[in-house]
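Researcher: I'd like a structural prediction for the single chain below. Treat it as a standalone chain; there are no partners to consider.
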Amino acid sequence: MPASAQDQPTVRINEVESNDGSPGDWIELVNTGTAAVDVSGWVVKDNDNSHSYKISSGRSLAAGAFLALDVDPSFGLGSSDSARLFQAGGSTLVDSYTWTDHATTTYGRCADGTGAFITTTASTKGAANACGGGGGEPPADTTWPGGAAITIADGSNVFGTNLSGLSFENAGVLWAVRNGPGKLYRLVPNGTTWRPDPAGGWASGKALHYAGGSGDPDAEGVVVTPDGLFVATERDNGNDSTSMPKILRFDASSTASSLNATAEWNLTSDLPSVAANAGPEGISWIPDTFLTAHGFRDERTGAAYNPATYPGHGSGLFFAGVEANGTVYVYALNQSGGGYTRIATITSGFPGVMDLEFEPATGHLWAVCDDTCQGRTSTLDINAQGKFAVTRTYDRPSGMADYNNEGFAIAPQTACTAGHKPVIWSDDTNDGGHALRAGTLNCTP
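Model: Treating it as a single chain, here is the predicted structure.
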């Protein structure tokens, strides 16, 4: 669901100096918006809540301006640490970045304010980042790896606004969720477009509720897994000023006219405090077989991920992307409901994550940003240290306008034709009376 300007501040962490800075460690902010932002009383912390730096009163950050904060002597930044930015009061997280070793220069976003954090080629305190080659950074933004053409993929005003996450079950079934009111749609092909399945009571979608039939979950992301269909939610629309980040499981085979969650996982105690409409936006799932084969590291144990450590968690792990900070949180969910364990935390390279998609054919975890990042996507892959890291960042297809796309789904490899397979985006704003658009992705990397 589109957030207000208050829900989505335009101030971001832009550069971090954690070692040998002048006069000491510092954290640089940038205002990516078009209007000045009052940052009086905003707070910067490291990974320890007992250490903080408060911005003085009367401080405003002009559009496009940089602000370097000398956090020494309030606290120092370690070789394995975090920089976290909070609004005044110190409880609402705006942005964060985590690293595991000092940079040889600094860590900075490329492009400023919106791109992934990389090792810069030089420290540029209070100025635009040095993003030239030689810093060990991921490749710069590249052309979309598929067709440039985009086609409308739904009928006129079928869904209206608020269509969000997408997930293919197979080449002939696409699931979608609407965030207000919370609904689940089973979509099937209709010529060259997709429509709600006219059979099984799906013609208008099915309303979603929490376990027991209460509430109206703000359904933002959906993923189909061998363990069931799961939905990421930010809040109850009936109390939309209060954050309530949950993952819900639903029985998609039910013939009921509305669906009650069959299990719930409340992530409130594990996630940072964020605005009510800036919580979990995207969700994906990766099988244990892939994770173990590629040496995925369990950050809780500090060793290679071992599925046997988490009995009852099903056959894979869940990846939840948060809108407020662009961070992906990885969980083992006890399938009886309620219990969960965080396995890892991943930086997406974007200020906010709107959807996540695992592509089995390539092993990529795709992270999707909306018009906040000009419709860019990034791929993350498991590196030599067993962590997901950004390997590519792609511009949106040249044939697609800068829509508020909150959903992204890649058709299975079986759908490949002439070297391309379909991809679908969902536009929360329903621009031009259409919420779904289709393009193509190369079947081979």
